[in-house]
Amino acid sequence: MTALVSDIGGTNTRLGLVEDGQLVASSLDSFANDDFDSYEAVVETYLDRLGQRRLDACCIALAAAPTPDGAQLTNRDWTIARTGLQALTGAPFIGFLNDFEALGYSLIAPERLETQPVLASAMPPPLRATRMVLGAGTGFNAAACHWPASGGAPHVAAAECGHTTLAIEGEEECALQAALAAGRGRASVERALSGNGLREIYAFVCGRAGRPCRAQTSAEIAAAAVAGSDEQAVAAAHLFLRLLGRVAGDLALTLLPHGGIYLYGGVCRALAPLIVTTDTFRDAFRAKGRMGPFMADFDAHLLLDDRIALIGCVEWLRIAAVSRACPR
Amino acid sequence: MTALVSDIGGTNTRLGLVEDGQLVASSLDSFANDDFDSYEAVVETYLDRLGQRRLDACCIALAAAPTPDGAQLTNRDWTIARTGLQALTGAPFIGFLNDFEALGYSLIAPERLETQPVLASAMPPPLRATRMVLGAGTGFNAAACHWPASGGAPHVAAAECGHTTLAIEGEEECALQAALAAGRGRASVERALSGNGLREIYAFVCGRAGRPCRAQTSAEIAAAAVAGSDEQAVAAAHLFLRLLGRVAGDLALTLLPHGGIYLYGGVCRALAPLIVTTDTFRDAFRAKGRMGPFMADFDAHLLLDDRIALIGCVEWLRIAAVSRACPR
């Protein structure tokens, strides 16, 4: 059986072929979305390049909420119709996954992923225990990978965590919430825990310090914070990590990922040195009152793998093939 | 096959027998915990009364985190050992469930439960869609009942939501958070959304109004709020429902219970008239910015059934029997 797996990002679309349940490394390729006017055109170019005509199945991960008929990209005017993709590839079996759903499926076998430890617990994670991925990048979201108590294949539970209400504590954060909510009526988690969020937190910190904002992009702010070259960038990064640790801790108490927590996304990766070498994230994660010792039993890792969404699609196809789940 | 199901509450222990997968109505009984010095003594009295000697299985729901060997009650010095219960009942198969885990399993067939609609969505809930229970009573917690995408038996994901950080918005709630956190360092969801929480919110409201606290217990405060006989009780109840709606909305965005949300617990039941007849809970639940229309698609119901934890134990036994899961 030959299947296509694909990860449609904001800028690039990554594709790969799956033979006998394994991702074929030599088939991995990436295309700039701006060079194409439809997703089908990307797939056609990719398959032509490989001389691959017919497929048995496709699994596509994308930053959107798929419907039974296909998906409409949120950040680009691409509409992907299941029927059109079936006509193009001949694949009778096509699956669409939300991007974090795909990340969740990749956690079925995290030992295959490139990771870096962030929080270490005293005990090794139990078998078949829930794993959680959360990510801060363009936006914020999370997903949980559960192993049903009755046995059977893992189940990934999707979420829309970025839209939950940002939990703040104390005077400074009340002022931050007011700044983030200005003109919007509220401050969601994503409003703070994203690239734009880091920029707004930096502007808030600079404003309170009466200093000009020297860094412009979230990448510049993160770099200046890691380098320690900009006092306000350092303060903004630590405020960001305090909020990230608190939100991660709340998600851990809600999803109980005793199998491990995996951090994903551009902002998490950019701030990784501060997550690992300072106590800010860890202390905020564990600051749950008498549950502190309970929180100390969670492992956390940073996901460094760029193929992770594709690997999640491979896992989803394997489960779908085994269970003959209906196309979705 | 004859099984015992049991729900150990803070005051009473409810028990029932299961024959051929059905709860036997005539076998339902309840005992005051104070009349016994151990859970085994309750079971012995119950089985003697029924003239039932041998059991094939037991499932016990209790407000505690069970271990493989048994469970230690949090609110009373009862330790329940799997081995002791096996010796007493002859049951080779014994399961311990956290109380909200049991509530989660009862949602496999909510049409069998006594409920009252709270929020109605335009669309009927899809089949095999996640259901969620959340409850405010002595404490606060939630659980999700998932139907694995690959098919198979439902999976209930337990949680420790009561310990998450209370998400507050605006000046008044910042002051409330400071009051709730006084002497404790932080304010958890449970600190506000529980019987004691309603009392503390009422004291906060009375303090700001410069009025004495006339109602004493959370039941008195809820009754006065529903009757409209105490202005501060009404204000406290609406503040409580605003926080409950927000937390319920955040849990809905995290667990995506498109199959329905079920409210449980003494405080939810006591404030039910205000949940149903005023907009406070609904508006707070849906106040998620551009996700407002998304939030309007969730159904919510109030759980009125006292047998719900027992019914959850019956469902768990059915799944465990089908899947031959290891005793837990």
From TrEMBL, chains A, B:
Gene3D superfamilies reported for this sequence: 3.30.420.40, 3.40.367.20
Keywords: Kinase, Transferase
Superkingdom as given in the UniProt entry: Bacteria
InterPro entries in alphabetical order: ATPase_NBD (IPR043129), Bacterial_glucokinase (IPR050201), Glucokinase (IPR003836)
Family per record: Belongs to the bacterial glucokinase family.
PANTHER family noted in UniProt: GLUCOKINASE (PTHR47690)
Name of the molecule in the record: Glucokinase
